[in-house]
Amino acid sequence: MELLTLDFTLVSSKAKTKGFVRIDRMFDSYANSSLGMIDPDGIEALCSDLGVDCTDVRILMLAWKLKAQRQGYFTQDEWRTGLKELRVDSISKLKKALPELEKEVGKPSNYDSFYSYAFRYCLTEEMQKSVDIESICELLNLVLGAQFRPQVDLLIEYLKVQSDYKVINLDQWINFLRFCQEINFPDLENYDATQAWPLILDNFVDWMREKHSSF
Fold it and tell me: Which PANTHER family does this one have (predicted)?
C-alpha cells in the first residue's frame, strides 16, 4: 500500500511538473535570470509581444490575476498560478485571453477586488499606506476613466488644484469608486455630507458646486 501511494505521488508530481513546462519556458523567456523573476524590463518585453502599452489597464488586470505582490515584478509561482487559471501557456494564447480577463474583472463580484488591488499594487515601500496625488490621478484615469469619464476628469482636476492632501489612503480610494457608482452626476443631488463620506469628497462636492455656480 505504501509503495502504491508513493508511486501515485511520484506520478502526480511528474504530471504536475509536465503541466508547467510550457508555462515555465514562457516565464524563462521574460525572467531576469539573476533575480529569478520577471522584472520591469521583462514586463516591457511581454507588453511588446502582446502588442499593448505598459500602461494598458490589462497589464494591471494581469498582475491582479497573478496576485503579484510587488509592482513591476512577477515571481515564478505567481506566473504559474495565474497562467494556469487563465489556461494559457504561450504568448498567442495570452493575447487571446486578455478580452476574457477584461470581462472577468468587469464582473461586480471581481471589480471591487481589482479596484482595491490597484491601490495596494502602488504601495512600493514597506509599511506604506498611502499613495501620492500624482500617482492616484494616473491610477484613477487608468481604472475608472473608461466607466466614469466625467467624474474622473473633474476629480483629477480637483486633486491637482487642492492643497490640503498630498497623499490618498485606501479608505479614500475606495470611496472614490463608491462616489462614482452612487452619486448622481453632475447635479450631485443625492450627495449627503452627513453620511460616512471622507472629508476629501465633501470638499470635492463643495468645489464642484462652486464651480457650477460660477457659470
Answer: DEFECTIVE IN CULLIN NEDDYLATION PROTEIN, RP42 RELATED
